[in-house]
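Worked Example 4.2. Read the sequence first, then its structure tokens.
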Amino acid sequence: MRPLLVVDGDSLAHRAYHALPKTIRRAGGRPSGAIVGFTNMLLRLYGAEQPRAVLVGWDTLTVPTYRHEAFAAYQSGRVFDDDLVEQLDLLPELVRAFGFAAAKAPGYEADDFLAAAVEAKRRWRSHVLVVTSDRDAFQLASERVTLLMPTRGVSELARVGPDEVRERYGVEPEQVPDFIALRGDPSDRLPGAPGVGPKGAAQIIQQYGSLEAALTAGRFAAQAEELRLYRRIATLDASAPLPPLEDQSPLWAEASDLLSSWGMNQVADRVAARVQSSSS
């Protein structure tokens, strides 16, 4: 049965932006490397996986999430190039032009929409493929949810399921937020428990079963509330609002027309070629 494909749009766009030359430009000399790379990746994913539907989740950079409000240091120090931000603003429109679903709402991060889609589509018997480079999403892995994680630029993917999560972290997928809370997450500026690294975090969870059980047993009494907060921050929010998710047919011609209107004729022709191949 064909899978549902759920994509962390910001993750792929960031990787594309940094993997391709900044000299790639569209009409008016505007930046377009992230758009080109993202489009190429989306085409490859669709061709390889033949999903029944595609959802792409996006961050809203101009509005803080509850994570930022609860912990001031969360993701502090991140600065994005103006050229990248300009392209991030355009990409949800391109996703919709393809006939796919785009999810973006104030207060939510892209990976929250991944969790919401996984939760919402439990009634679907098909597999769910989650495309992201964010290891926080390890918590979504299950027998019916496989992560596709870029390993080199945006061209190579590693498949991650429950076994790979256990091998990498030493915990079950559902224990990943507890693991992150204890170990910390430098990329998000979460400090974790004092003196606890990856191996120590895994051992504590293996011993007690959960962060809460460890706290109940008296571990980390002075940091208990902070660790609970870190776990909440690390937990993806499956209540994020989603657009309707039903079976889709790609609108290659419409996406090609939009790319052409942006002065991106080469990638537009690549998308238009899908119209001919799908009708042959």
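Now turn to a second chain, presented in exactly the same format:
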Amino acid sequence: MDIILKNANVAHRDEPVRNADIAIKGDTIVAVEASIEAEAGQVIECGGRLVSGSLIDSHVHLDAVLAAGLERDNQSGTLHEGIEIWTDFKGKRTIEAIKQRARRAIDWEVAQGAGFIRSHADVCDDAQLSTQALLELRDEMRDRVDIQIVAFPQVGIKSFPGGEKQMRDALDMGADVVGGIPHNEVTREAGVDSVMFIFDEAEKRGLKIDVHCDEVDDSHARFLEVMVEQTFKRGMGAQVTASHCVAMHSYNNAYAYRLMGWIERSKLNVTANPFDNIILQAR
């Protein structure tokens, strides 16, 4: 063996944490069992420390990290003002500046055990600065971390001039996942149309879906039900993720209970983002 990790508390998928040794040959784990006696070029005593597979950061905006202080402060503390500030700031960026900040954040994540990162890239920009920067960084750091890039229309698809074209441009450039933000469209109808656009593009291209969904306090924001229905009807299951979904806290109990049942049946994923949403607006 090349390496043996001794006396590790091993966490693997849904199995109970157990104490074991781990034998590694080349780049392959060949055994995880108690008291491995084989000789190895290197023996590492773990002393009961936790050993697990790589951690997953399923939702981050690497094009916006470490940008605090580069634009005016958010006086209201609301998501809407935050989006306005971001929109004003976008045109002042460069690809290299985006990459520099994102690379620093990725280094921090990898140092804490992250091996998989899904990042949203704002595509509402004819220059596609976020998309280009993060795609370059994804490829440059491929040997250290697996990064998925979500084509994310921060201000909308149907209600934003050129929104559909900008989404398709980002996907043509090589984005891995189709994103969306239906509650940011002007009308309910435009929001539903944007969800249909997202599912159609993903199905046509064989891509996953990850949508910012109902990230508002409005109990009438109910695009999650549209996502669930389309996921169920198209049989896309775990290929689809709804992120945030915080309007659910404003739904009446009967509706929320029924919707949760359909989420389970559709197998759609939900990514909660507590670090953001416990401090925004009414939450």
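Notes for the reader: The mean pLDDT is 93. The helical segments are 79-90, 95-111, 129-140, 163-173, 188-205, 223-234, 253-266, 274-277.
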